[in-house]
Amino acid sequence: MTLHDLGARTLRLFDPETAHGVSLAAMSLGLGPRHSQRDPTLSVTIAGLTFPNCVGLAAGYDKNAEVPDAMLAAGFGFVECGSVTPRPQDGNPRPRLFRLTEDRAVINRMGFNNQGLDAFEERLKRRRGMPGVVGANIGANKDSADRTADYVEGLRRLWPWASYFTANISSPNTPGLRALQTRAALDDLLGRLREARAGLTAAHGPRPVFLKVAPDLDEGEIAQIAEACLAGGIDALVVSNTTVDRPGGLRSRQAAETGGLSGKPLFQPSTQVLADFYAATQGRLPLIGVGGVGSAQEAWAKIRAGASAVQLYSALVFEGPGLVGRIRDGLRARLAAEGFGHLSEAVGRS
Asked: Which residues contact 81 (CB under 8 A, 6 or more apart)?
């Protein structure tokens, strides 16, 4: 166990939201691990954007773009900051973050708490010219009269500074947000994003735009979302967000808390939805697999199910920051053992 992993274990002595704040402060002071990002066997290019390795940090950890470079230095191939909304908002009342230790899981009902676009934009501006892939996960304010306009505003404000964008329409903690996954609402959203992108691309150059979806989708919903994204110019799907379901067998006394469940219990349902999206898109739309990735074996399963890259967050709570290196080492070993020369050769080879 590394010193940094021991530090992660110590953080679990604090309540979850305090621990999160302490970890951000530690990373901002340069106390995190340092590993090269470069991993040619695991590199991936999506929509013209090259990630030096396929293991990314999911949105939710660095909501306000405070420590993206520290997380890149820890060995992540890409970092997704946010979710950020146009105006600051406090989110839901505390307690709103729960550590389900027995289940290696987390439940959150944070409610898009963040400092808003002004603070987020200023921090991204300060890293202008610095290397590394840093994406912006954009959302809508809870009380917005036009939530689609909030996503357009996120693109407009951050386009010059972010490497890519993820439109988060799948958080279960903003009432009504998941309704944007219905076909009519999604067509409207994607149409307005596409219109905004045209002008922004002309002014500042292209940026990929991804869409983050829920795991709680049936076969018909998956087909409709896939069709809308293929027609609407989305560059990749991030599959998936947290689940409102509670799989059987959860042992923690906090398992009944309201909110989105992430971590190990999310692995199986999110991987199945990932495979369903891969089948629905027939490999025409890159997928980023998220949900329950806590080992090289789980990352490998996502890749074989159709993911071109993976993201993680909740597992860091239990495994520590050394997990990133262990997953990368394990993926390289697995590729070699199965005769693949590069990660891309294994995508969708279930």
From this structure: 59, 62, 63, 64, 65, 68, 120, 134, 135, 136, 137
Are 285 and 237 in contact by the 8 Å Cβ rule? The answer is yes
**CB-CB contact of 117 with 124 (8 Å):** no
Nearest to residue 224, comparing CAs of 267, 181, 189? Answer: 181
Q: Which domains does the chain have, with CATH numbers?
A: 3-346 (3.20.20.70)
- Give every CB contact of residue 206 below 8 A, 6+ residues apart in sequence: 48
The reply to whether the predicted model has a pTM over 0.90 is yes
Rounded Cα gap, residues 98 and 259, in angstroms:
9
Mean pLDDT calculated for residue range 231-252:
97
Quote the pLDDT of residue 152: 98
Q: What are the φ/ψ torsions at residue 78 (nearest 5 degrees)?
A: -160, 155
Q: Residue 2 pLDDT > 80, yes or no?
A: no
**Gap between the Cα atoms of 52 and 110, Å rounded:** 31
- Which residues participate in catalysis according to the annotation? 171
Core vs surface per residue 274-290: b (16+ CB within 10 A) or e: bbbbbbbbeeebbbbbb
